[in-house]
């Protein structure tokens, strides 16, 4: 009969990663983050913006971002960015939260093995930036209101200073309201303002 023995976690015997290994791993993780966001369909400009935010935080912190704790985030957003525009604080906070979501989903075990740290986002309900605006309910105009708009707009065509752009804008808006075209589709279906015909009698 086999004797009972204490079960030990093999991770206890793994040596901590060296500074060089952590540096290479940090670079690989950031590259993976960029690739993951690209595969999600984000525009290059959006990804570059997030990476720029992360680089600013990393430069200030001086250590890998997975070491940031809520107290560090409090100092950064509460003192360093205290007087920065709300959009900057919000963008940087969202970039950091997204990056930590990536770390938790993809590299939580590796980071714990290499550093002994358990990845946890430093942005919580207490220090989360309050710059976001809730989506507001938009009520479309009624048929009489739409009729009033285009009746008045049509009347301006006889007296407007620049007929071509005014006629173009009126026609595009009419198409979008009646056919449901998107802005890009409406623009593609209309001639440029310089090619628009002028009514007889206009100077």
Distance between the termini: 108 Å
* Radius of gyration from the alpha-carbon trace, in angstroms: 29 Å
Q: Major β-sheet, in short?
A: none
Poorly predicted runs are: none
Percentage beta strand: under 5%
Number of helices: 8
Mean pLDDT: 82
Task: Give the oligomeric state.
Answer: single chain
Q: How do the SSEs run, as a string of H and E?
A: HHHHHHHH
Summarize the structure.
The protein has 203 residues and is an all-alpha fold.
Task: Describe the fold and architecture.
This protein has 203 residues and is mainly alpha-helical. Helices cover 57% and strands 0% of the residues. It has eight helices and no strands. The chain has helices at 19-39, 44-61, 70-80, 86-106, 108-115, 143-156, 163-179, 183-188. Helix 2 packs across helix 4 and helix 6 runs antiparallel to helix 7. The N and C termini lie far apart (108 Å).
Write the layout of secondary structure elements.
Layout: H1 19-39, H2 44-61, H3 70-80, H4 86-106, H5 108-115, H6 143-156, H7 163-179, H8 183-188
Q: What are the main properties of this structure?
A:
203 residues, mainly alpha, 8 helices, 57% helix
